Amino acid sequence: MRLAALLLFWLLAPLAASAQTAAVPAPQTPVPVYGFEVVRVYPHDPKAFTQGLMFRDGELLESTGRYPSTVRRVRLEDGVVLQQRELAEDYFGEGLTAVGDRVLTLTWRDGKGFIWDPETLEPRGEFAYAGEGWGLTHDATRLILSDGTAALRFLDPATLQETGRVPVTLQGRPISQINELEWIEGEVFANVWQTDYIVRINPASGEITGIIDLTELMPDRSGLDPTDAVLNGIAWDPEGRRLFVTGKNWPKLFEIRLTGPR
Asked: The pTM is what?
C-alpha cells in the first residue's frame, strides 16, 4: 500500500481492537485532517525542481535539485528569478533555510551544506553533516534537518553540529520520507515525499498532530512527470500570516488558507 494511502487510513480510521489478534492496540483518536482554500495563485518556474522554499523580506528564497542545482531569490508576484547561483555540477541541491545573515542549503548524498549571503547569494562557506540532506528549517534556537528517515535532527546554528533528534511518528508508527520543512508557529510543517500531504509535527515529541490534504490543489498535472513533479515546497510569511506551497517543476505557486479540521 502506498504511503499516502497509509497516512489517510491512519488519520481517518481509528485503530480497532481485533478479536482474532490480541496484539492489536486499542482504538485511538484519529489525527485531524485539514483541507484548504486557495487564496491566490502565482507563477512558478516550471524548470525549478523545488527542494527548499522560504519567504524572506517580501521575496522567496528557493533551492532546486538536479544538475545544475541552484539557490535563488525569486520575486513572489510574477515568479521572476532575481538572482541565482549554481552549485558545482556534481552536487544535487536539497533543503534551504535562512538564519540571521546566512542562507544555508543542503545536498542530497554528499554530506555537505553550503552557506550563502542572503542579499547577494555569494558563497560564504561550507559545513558537513552525516547521512543524507532533504529538508531544512529552524526555530528560535536550532536548525531542524530531515534526511528521508523517520526522524527530525537538530543542529546548533553556530557550530552546525548535531545536538539531538526525535522520531517522527503517527499514532506510534514511524513515518519516513519526511522532506521539505517549514517552522510555523511552534510546529514543523513537512512534505511527505511522493504524496499530496503535509504533516504537522510536534518538535518536542516528533508526533504528527495533524495532516493537510492537498490532493485537489492542482488536479490537472498533464505533462508533468507523476514520479518527480510532486508536491514539495512550503513557505510561511509570519507577518502577513500567509502560507505558500508549490511542487517540483510546477508552473504555479499557491497561497492557501487551511480549513477544518474535518
From this structure: 0.91
